[in-house]
Write a sequence for this structure.
């Protein structure tokens, strides 16, 4: 079953300050944190513990960006996700698994 959520980064997002001056981007760790929070909320706990099996950051995400997060439940409890800046512009993708306490 497919799921989706929207992630919006404010134009003045504090993580972009100094990352990088004159060419700001949202750090990958901040993007991943938003992904985990959205999928955790779907799983019933925004504080859910995940095992991150793989993540690829494919395009820079800028302050003010609006992303569509899509994910599917896969085999062996894995969750495959993709963050899209536009339908044909993936910004990040990866595979997660809920931690043992949440399975």
């Amino acid at each position: 079953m497919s799921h989706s959520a929207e992630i919006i980064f404010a134009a003045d997002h504090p993580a972009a300050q100094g990352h990088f001056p004159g060419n700001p981007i949202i750090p990958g760790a901040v993007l991943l944190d938003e992904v985990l929070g959205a999928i955790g909320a779907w799983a019933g706990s925004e504080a859910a513990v995940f095992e991150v099996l793989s993540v690829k950051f494919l395009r820079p995400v800028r302050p003010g960006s609006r992303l569509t997060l899509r994910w599917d439940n896969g085999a062996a409890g894995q969750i495959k996700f993709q963050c899209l800046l536009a339908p044909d512009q993936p910004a990040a993708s990866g595979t997660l698994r809920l931690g043992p306490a949440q399975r």
